[in-house]
User: Fold this.
Amino acid sequence: MDHKLDILQPVLEAALTGKLQSLKRERGELTLTVRAADYLAVCTTLRDHAELKFEQLIDVCGLDYSTYRDGNGSSYDGGPRYCVVLHLLSVANNWRLRVKVFCPDDDLPVVPSVNEVWSSANWFEREAFDLYGIVFDGHADLRRILTDYGFIGHPFRKDFPTTGHVEMRYDAEQKRVIYQPVTIEPREITPRIIREDNYGGLH
Assistant:
């Protein structure tokens, strides 16, 4: 695999001159980071460039870096909060690439849609919109895909409560499904620790 990366890395650097924020090689994989303004053009180049040929988009996902901590326990550095990550495959060349783009505005996270570049992005982008609130500019049908149409908020954001804001139940008197405030009371569960001598017959 490293031999493939030795070939792929210089081709990426040459094809995307001036549009690379970073190109990292870790754990046998390449991760390319680009600015939101260059994102669509970079994706088109990755698909169409004669030596790259990333004809398949395998996955699109969102990330919320607001409470990110690295291995040393230090807090996130305060850069952009929301990120979109693509995983690409070139069947012709048998190599893979990860592409990252950060949304410039935390209050309204927006990046261009790549649905016109790879049609498989359609539902993936809808999922990232639904769960993280990331808007994909140019998407022809950007609406929720996993949560209910009346759902409020974006459940994969780090500040979204684990219990949610409302719960849904069937009301027998009204003969319909209704929404109501969450009735689960937050509580801390402490696991039971057994400290008996010779527990389980061990000596």
Remarks:
- The helical segments are 2-15, 39-48, 121-132.
